[in-house]
């Protein structure tokens, strides 16, 4: 407070400033602490929720793929498939596609790289298709990369080797195109009660599925999630998002694809409760400042009014007017000071009266002395 006198602030201004500081700073500090604590709690809760949802999604995605793989292996053990009976196998495949929506297309390739049974007559093998690669992938249980149809629907292929009944030699490969639109349904079902949006990306970063059109990939790659979960704030088009990215590889699934699950929520939605709290804190801070200002003015007035009264009477005394009575306006120390000041006024008035009387006496004596001196001078004495 040593700097205040430099600016010529009076007691009223000093008290007002003091009360404002004492009232507003604690409220502001505690409010800021509460706001940050609330944001931290929400951040941790949203992250925990995202990881739980990612876990559910990862298991759902893997279980469907693993079911398809096992079902495909079981189909290759059927006699009708091992004997390469094209007409019966084709009817059987069509029934499977009809009853299992995850199978988009099923087709049987013999050892001569010819399709002998297929659920879609328009299917042809790519020119660079290799029988050995299909067998290798079948034994490894690996999935192909993700492809998309003309309408943008994602799919991938699974292969299963067919061995002949007689010699146990490789007679062909059963290939299935797996419809991945079920991933989108899993996303939507998992997030229907959440404000978060979700995506599933393949290893190349292409979108396999998204829960809503506004969900954005936000530039998260599979390499970032290989070392661990990614949780951070990220900007996109001027909007900040709280995101959690998880790789399917973290769950130790057998031959799981290196896909990435991204769950995201705009910062304004995620921390809406914290921002509401911030608004209430600001309202409380303003109300506290107004109340403190009014209280400070009243307190300052109770201090300064008696002092101003005392100053006014002091001006009369300074002018030599001791007739105006000084009455205490309060019962506190200032009132006691006023009473003492009034006693001093009375004493000064008495002293002044005594001095005036003495001055008159001295003046009279002086005049008498002058008169006597004149008489003596005139008589020549």
Topology:
Layout: H1 11-76, H2 79-82, H3 86-99, E1 103-110, E2 115-118, H4 131-140, E3 147-148, E4 154-163, E5 170-179, H5 181-191, E6 197-201, E7 207-210, H6 222-226, E8 230-236, E9 239-247, E10 260-266, H7 267-270, H8 272-318, H9 333-379
Antiparallel strand pairs: 1-2, 1-5, 3-4, 4-5, 6-7, 6-10, 8-9, 9-10
Helix pairs in contact: 1-5, 1-8, 8-9
CATH class of the domain at 77-179: Alpha Beta
- Can you write the helix and strand succession as a string? HHHEEHEEEHEEHEEEHHH
Spatial strand sequence of the major β-sheet:
2-1-5-4-3
What's the CATH superfamily of the domain at 77-179, by name? PAS domain
Distance between the termini: 77 Å
Describe the main β-sheet briefly.
5 strands, antiparallel
The helix fraction, in percent, is 40-55%
The radius of gyration is 48 Å
Unreliable residue runs: 1-7
Q: What structural class do the secondary elements suggest?
A: alpha+beta
- The proportion of residues in beta strands is 15-25%
CATH overall fold name of the domain at 77-179: Beta-Lactamase
Gross geometry: rod-shaped
Number of separate helices = 9
Supply the CATH architecture of the domain at 77-179. 2-Layer Sandwich
Q: Mean pLDDT, rounded to whole units?
A: 81
Notes on the structure:
With 381 residues, this protein is of the alpha+beta class. Helices cover 55% and strands 17% of the residues. Among the domains are: 77-179, 2-Layer Sandwich (Beta-Lactamase), CATH 3.30.450; 320-379, no CATH class. It is built from 9 helices and 10 strands. The strands form 2 sheets. Strands 2-1-5-4-3 form a 5-stranded antiparallel beta sheet. The chain has a 5-stranded antiparallel beta sheet with strand order 7-6-10-9-8.
